[in-house]
């Protein structure tokens, strides 16, 4: 039975005898034969070549690295070498075998000499266990079998699922806190003095929200929105933003401890990736010379400039979305539909959010191609270096793709649009959009909610359906000829036992080098949404938590049932992703500080309470200190000062024509310059931002110091090992002296 176990399968079209492709294929297989590989050929609609490496290759590997794998017992091992190790070594040799024409397997696949190369999903106790106890929806709340995942997919995949499980577990705490803050906001739904004043402001006439066919409107028209805004814009949000900054640090510190425990159990804590790669190179070719470390400032400068150009393009797309919302608002206000006219701003924001999601989907594909091109320009020395540079570039591009529009809405919307009588206009025609009448944070909340919901519904459905449909289509296409032969009644010769297994693996969807990378990127972008603007959307951790419960098993089902087996990779941490997550933690502090200081009304209300409110000016103790805030935050405007673009509408029914309307800003009534209150609030915003960020960063540093990266149990394990090793060495020395 051992004789029928194959490490890899190569698939090729049936080429004409003597054709260039057939000759190239033969040359490659001959090179493998020279290295002692056993090759088995099976012909069907395609040519299948099973390859098995000679045992001496694995003995060399174990001897060179004194690898802990030699001490492991694996249910499917050859001479105690785990199958994952066999596959990894064989894949390396296949990828680095050079034909006399100086072509590698990658070049031959590009030239259609081979169609695919993949390791096989095994039929055995381990794979059946993973299919039944892990890659099923019904075990969604069960513990993940990380050790068994490692035996089957290798350490890199096992660490991804260990990290994702740990992240989801701690996300449950953040989700509960976010839900608590949101529910607390709902309980004070009607008790906010600010929203009460808005609901009672039936006599306050506000400036039109657009130039054409927009009416004057009562401030009380936004009563419902004002109450909803207070659900997310309250004192609890500030505490929650601080909590999330600490949570992000604690999560990473606890993960470092968890990872140290896991890799110590695997005997990989001190594993050296570079040493392993050099060993594999020498096993493949004894004459191999290592590629030297190099750095080119010229290349780095070119890459940096191209990265900046790409970022400029992504920011330009965010500007295009802004222009869309401006033009859409203008068009919706002129619509024949009464609903569209009344809700023009909200509809423009919502359709803009959907359009933003579509640009995310499209630009994700463009970003990948650009990042790969830039990696090729840099010419990294090893695969891991290439992966690291690719990770940093694609994350940077994806960050700007996902967050440029949100950054504009959070920090610029409604602050750079001028004021009545002197609006900032695009192409001298369309007014820049204003915040939602109930506050700028409402726009951010709507945008975040729509993007997160679309990403976690449509994207996940497509992530599952796409490979499932492709798998079904491939199966049908490959099974047709077999059915036809059976219908004709032709007798088939006894089928090779390997043929069915190789065909069923070939029917599965192809995996590539970046299959696991894509899963990490998806989760890290989600982590960014969960932490950076969480002050505007406290439900983000809850949505992420629910999504991840499904994501773990969606990924498991894809890997076990819909995709070919991934080539196992050895690893002892999640690599450069940890640095990316730490960078996001710092961005989260800055982002949430800016949201509370700039987007939220928290600071203006606070300044009013302690400087201008009745509690201060009249020493009133029986009234709410925010009484009168709404009137204080409005400025008056003379109708005759409107620009000629503005078509003046009729006054609301029941109002006499007046020469004065109001708008939200702190400006003087005579020359529309900023009032002293504006500068007072501006100073308070800056002071809060500096205080919040310094306190949050200090707390993060204290939390990072307080929680050691490596548990004492791991340190003691290594201490014991060193002691026993030295004792053995000393005994040998003393034994030699006595003899």
TrEMBL record:
- Any one Gene Ontology cellular component term annotated for this protein: plasma membrane
Primary location? membrane
The superkingdom of the source organism is Eukaryota
Q: Which keywords annotate this record?
A: Cell membrane, Glycoprotein, Membrane, Transmembrane, Transmembrane helix
Q: Which residues form the Anoctamin dimerisation domain?
A: 83-146
> Entry's Pfam families?
Anoct_dimer, Anoctamin
Residue ranges crossing the lipid bilayer per the database entry: 157-186, 237-255, 301-324, 344-363, 390-413, 524-550, 571-598
- All copies of the Anoctamin transmembrane domain together span 149-716
Q: How does it sit in the membrane?
A: Multi-pass membrane protein
Q: Which InterPro entries match?
A: Anoct_dimer, Anoctamin, Anoctamin_TM
List the GO molecular function terms. Answer: chloride channel activity; protein dimerization activity
The subcellular location is: Cell membrane; Membrane
Family per record: Belongs to the anoctamin family.
Identification of the protein by name: Anoctamin
Q: Whose protein is this, by species?
A: Eolophus roseicapilla (Galah cockatoo)
| Organism placement in taxonomy | Eukaryota, Metazoa, Chordata, Craniata, Vertebrata
């Amino acid at each position: 039975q051992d004789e029928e176990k194959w490490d890899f399968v190569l698939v090729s079209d049936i080429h004409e005898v003597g054709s260039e492709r057939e000759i190239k294929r033969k040359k490659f297989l001959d090179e493998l034969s020279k290295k002692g590989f056993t090759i088995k050929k099976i012909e069907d609609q395609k040519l299948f070549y099973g390859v098995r490496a000679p045992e001496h290759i694995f003995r060399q590997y174990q001897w060179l690295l004194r690898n802990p794998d030699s001490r492991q017992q694996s249910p499917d091992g050859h001479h105690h070498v785990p199958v994952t190790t066999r596959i990894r070594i064989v894949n390396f040799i296949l990828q680095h075998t050079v034909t006399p024409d100086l072509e590698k397997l990658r070049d031959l696949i590009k030239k259609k000499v081979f169609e695919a190369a993949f390791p096989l999903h095994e039929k055995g106790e381990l794979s059946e266990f993973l299919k039944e106890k892990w890659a099923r929806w019904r075990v969604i709340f069960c513990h993940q079998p990380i050790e068994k995942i490692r035996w089957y997919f290798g350490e890199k995949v096992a660490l991804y699922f260990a990290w994702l499980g740990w992240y989801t577990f701690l996300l449950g705490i953040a989700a509960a806190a976010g839900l608590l803050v949101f529910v607390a906001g709902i309980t004070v739904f009607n008790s906010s003095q600010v929203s009460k004043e808005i609901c009672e402001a039936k006599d306050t006439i506000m400036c039109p929200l657009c130039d054409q066919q927009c009416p004057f409107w009562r401030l009380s028209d936004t009563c419902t929105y004002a109450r909803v805004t207070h659900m997310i814009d309250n004192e609890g949000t500030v505490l929650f933003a601080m909590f999330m900054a600490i949570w992000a640090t604690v999560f990473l510190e606890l993960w470092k401890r968890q990872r140290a425990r896991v890799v110590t159990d695997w005997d990989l804590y001190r594993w050296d990736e570079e040493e392993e790669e050099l060993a594999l190179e020498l096993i493949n070719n004894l004459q191999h010379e290592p590629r030297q470390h190099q750095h080119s400032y010229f290349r780095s400068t070119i890459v940096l400039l191209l990265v900046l150009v790409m970022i400029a393009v992504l920011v330009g797309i965010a500007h295009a979305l802004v222009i869309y919302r401006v033009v859409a608002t203008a068009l919706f206000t002129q619509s024949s539909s009464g609903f569209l006219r009344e809700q023009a701003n909200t509809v423009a924001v919502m359709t803009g959010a959907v359009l933003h999601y579509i640009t995310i989907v499209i630009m994700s594909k463009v970003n990948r191609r650009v990042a790969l091109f830039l990696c090729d320009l840099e010419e990294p020395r090893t695969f891991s270096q290439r992966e690291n540079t690719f990770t940093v570039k694609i994350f940077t591009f994806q960050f700007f793709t996902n967050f440029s529009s949100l950054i504009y809405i959070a920090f610029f919307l409604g602050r750079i649009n001028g004021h009545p009588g002197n609006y900032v206009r695009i192409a001298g025609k369309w007014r820049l959009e204003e915040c939602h009448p109930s506050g700028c944070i409402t726009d951010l909340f709507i945008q975040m909610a729509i993007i997160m919901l679309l990403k976690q519904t449509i994207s996940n459905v497509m992530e599952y359906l796409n490979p499932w449909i492709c798998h079904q289509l491939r199966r049908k296409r490959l099974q047709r000829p077999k059915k036809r032969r059976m219908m004709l009644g032709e007798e088939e010769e006894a089928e090779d036992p390997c043929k069915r297994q190789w065909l069923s693996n070939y029917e599965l969807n192809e995996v590539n080098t970046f299959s696991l990378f894509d899963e990490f990127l998806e989760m890290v972008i989600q982590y960014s949404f969960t932490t950076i603007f969480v002050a505007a959307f406290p439900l983000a951790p809850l949505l992420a938590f629910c999504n991840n419960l499904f994501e773990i098993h969606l990924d498991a089902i894809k890997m076990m049932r819909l995709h070919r087996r991934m080539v196992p990779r050895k690893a002892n941490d999640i690599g450069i992703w940890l640095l990316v997550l730490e960078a996001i933690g710092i961005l989260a502090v800055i982002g949430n500080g800016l949201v509370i200081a700039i987007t939220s009304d928290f600071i203006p209300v606070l300044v009013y309470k302690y400087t201008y409110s009745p509690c201060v000016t009249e020493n009133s103790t029986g009234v709410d200190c925010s009484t009168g805030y709404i009137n204080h935050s409005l400025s008056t405007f003379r109708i005759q000062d409107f620009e000629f673009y503005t078509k003046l509408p009729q006054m609301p029914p029941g109002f006499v024509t007046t020469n004065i309307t109001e708008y939200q800003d702190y400006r003087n009534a005579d020359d529309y310059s900023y009032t002293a209150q504006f500068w007072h609030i501006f100073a308070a915003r800056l002071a809060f931002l500096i205080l919040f960020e310094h306190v949050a960063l200090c707390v993060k540093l204290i939390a990072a110091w307080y929680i050691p990266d490596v548990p004492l149990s791991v340190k003691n394990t290594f201490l014991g090992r060193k002691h026993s090793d030295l004792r053995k060495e000393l005994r040998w020395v003393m034994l030699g002296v006595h003899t």
